Amino acid sequence: MNAQQLQAIIAAGLDCTHLTVEGDGRHWSAVVVSDAFVGLRPIARHQRVYATLGQKMHTDEVHALSMKTFTSAEWAAQNN
């Protein structure tokens, strides 16, 4: 799996306003911005992203995924 494939999987399962994925084929990092995160704690946000990956986390296609998750408002505040 490459970064574009992983990004497409996340984007297909979660409405993102910004999404970047980087990694080496096993270990990945992502910045995910979605208003689906409004009102959610960080662990629930991560669970939402993991849910888009389904079995890929369990079959080791995606061995590790670290992520930073933001709502659109949080992302805008961070980048001003």
TrEMBL record:
A Pfam family this chain is assigned to: BolA
Superkingdom of the organism of origin: Bacteria
Gene3D superfamilies the record matches: BolA-like (3.30.300.90)
GO BP of this protein: DNA-templated transcription
This protein's GO CC annotations: cytosol
Family named by the database record: Belongs to the BolA/IbaG family.
Protein name (database record): BolA family transcriptional regulator
Protein species of origin: Limnohabitans planktonicus II-D5
